[in-house]
Amino acid sequence: MHVTVFGANGQTGHEIVKQLLQRGHTMTAAVRRPSTVQPLDGVTVCKIDLSDQPSVLATVQGSDAVISALGSGALRSARKKTSLYSDSARAIRAAMRQLDVKKLIVLSSSGVDEEENAPFFYNCIIRRFLMNTYIDMARMETILSESDDLEWTSVRLSYLVECGSKPYKVYDTSIDSSTFRIGFKDAANFVANEVKERKCMRKMATIAYP
């Protein structure tokens, strides 16, 4: 299977690329700065401009599935108003429809919906700090929910941490009881499996350690 990964140079995106390669897939790594992507066999690096629809179309051409691991970068950037998630969802969806590509996975956040059981520090400080990002992620998920012609999945990541792989749980909606954490490797593992298995098709699936 050939997969296009938007945002392949981020920490999660890079890990997704590695795990897809381990499963025998080939890839197009779509990034704004190709020099930031480590050359790997089986991966074609493509410079992408999301405001230029023909370049998005060319990037998706020949794909069996598309993954958007796009993000706003550092925490300070994530605080600002953004339309990255909703704009990219529209651009990618338009290209997929034109090329009749069906499988789409996007990275979102469990912070899109307020969780009463989340730690006080998160709900009262972190979530408010990142509210602009969460608002646009919600716009992105609305675009997906209106796309019945696509086999989409929104992967709502909890707090990302650097750690070894360990068992995690997939929640269809809210998190009832968890650490509100997920490792980069386990997040990528779920995405790489979902490309083929499609267990959470047309769902906003939250993953976290129990």
UniProtKB/TrEMBL annotation:
Residue ranges of every copy of the NAD(P)-binding domain listed in the record: 7-196
Pfam families with a match to the protein in the record: NAD_binding_10
A molecular function (GO) term: biliverdin reductase [NAD(P)H] activity
Residues annotated as transmembrane: none
Protein name as catalogued: NAD(P)-binding domain-containing protein
